[in-house]
Amino acid sequence: MTVVSSRLDPSGPEYGSRREAMLAKLADLDAEHAKAVAGGGPKYVERHRGRGKLLARERIELLVDPDSPFLELSPLAAWGTDFPVGASVVTGIGVIEGVECVITANDPTVRGGSSNPWTLRKTLRAADIALQNRMPFVNLVESGGADLPTQKEIFIPGGRIFRDLTRLSAAGIPTIALVFGNSTAGGAYVPGMSDYVVMVREQAKVFLGGPPLVKMATGEESDDESLGGAEMHARTSGLADYLAADEHDALRLGRRIVRRLDWHKAGRPPGPATEPLLDEDELLGIVPEDLKIPFDPREVIARVVDGSDFDEFKPLYGASLVTGWASVHGHPVGILANARGVLFGEEAEKAAQFIQLANQSRTPLVFLQNTTGYMVGKDYEQGGIIKQGAMMINAVSNSTVPHITIVMGASYGAGNYGMCGRAYDPRFLFSWPSAKSAVMGPAQLAGVLSIVGRAAAEARGQAYDEEADVAMRQMVEAQIEAESLPFFLSGRLYDDGVIDPRDTRTVLGICLSAVGNAPAAEPAGYGVFRM
């Protein structure tokens, strides 16, 4: 075994200060997660319970296998916007009757479960995960449809929800709708386009137009039950495949449907797994508060991979990027991790070769980001840093094995691209509370604007306003700092969630197991590498 040797000193002051800083960030994260769990607040939660209904997360808990994990995705969606944290929908990966499924559940305590622009983005992301990873897709439906004041941002792109359901079905991926309440207007097509539909008696209401709209459009008098009630759809329209007596019965029926799928994974099964030799709790004290200070990612790897066993590839070449082979919960992986932040030409070439090797052996890749980007400067430009960086980005772009990205620290500039940021479609991407991402660091960006402004003033023959320059730099630094923080980025779904570093191994294990539902993709076909 090639066990990683740790140099971390958990008793030292440096470790202690880093740990305290991370714990403070985790406390803030817990507070934001609590907002999502609170839904619409006590008033609307009690009103919902008064109708004899379960909350969205309670429905999920009863649907998934007892004591099995549920990996919630994008819980901070809509953070920093005018909409409630969580975007009125819960999405994630859970195990139902031994089958890994993507699950979405409308939260009817938040504006009746209506969909705002962030709800849409979160729901579409869940459908993408189901399709990419060949996982059954289960919708727990109770929604009043679109949040009408924002319809201009929902109506046209929202049609993708229904397109995705039909594409999943066409790909042989089961889609299941359990309808607990309203599913109206365009939302009626969620059960309408699902393979299996369960409706709760005297609760489910599915119609294209409710009684008021029908009255306005046709003059016809009708009531909810005859127009779109569960019993009508079970007996008359045939839209409901199963009529549930109550919510618990609907969840029982949903589990039975999944059990009868006879679903099998198409990917490679995992091998034996062993726990890391080093304590995962020590992950809290590794990342510096100041991301300009580098840290050794091997300390992270040693606390995440099976047996702390990491077979490093090219350890003496391109030392700012650590590459090598390991297993996580029995799943073989190739790991690329930034060691000193900046990427030089050697690191780019090393990464491109390593990615090609992983594609040859069909091994998933894990990217551990802490990068300030590719090196700049006259010598590096003349040495071909653009070609070298392009080679790495080419390799990442055309790689066909699953990619999973964890942003531990900085994720700046084109380093975000080369290390498989969101634009490069990793199967999953999570951030630590210490993560930051932007085109460059706040001070650097403000400094660039200052230099450009100073040069422009000199070209016009004007004196440069130094006081205005100081104010501008402070304003820009504050703005970029705020917009590079993980809550802000997660709120815009640039990741799949902000996680506790101690959960990294568990999250990676769930994701690697999920990608194993899909068969191995065709071997990568690369474009021209500029040498």
UniProtKB/TrEMBL annotation:
PROSITE patterns (alphabetical): COA_CT_CTER (PS50989), COA_CT_NTER (PS50980)
Domain CoA carboxyltransferase N-terminal: 22-273
Family annotation (Pfam families): Carboxyl_trans (PF01039)
Xref: SUPFAM superfamilies: ClpP/crotonase
Alphabetized Gene3D superfamilies for the sequence: 2-enoyl-CoA Hydratase, Chain A, domain 1
GO molecular function: ligase activity
InterPro entries, per database record: AcCoA_carboxyl_beta, ClpP/crotonase-like_dom_sf, COA_CT_C, COA_CT_N, MCCB/AccD1-like
Domain called CoA carboxyltransferase C-terminal: residue spans: 28-280, 275-522
Protein name: Acetyl-CoA carboxylase carboxyltransferase subunit
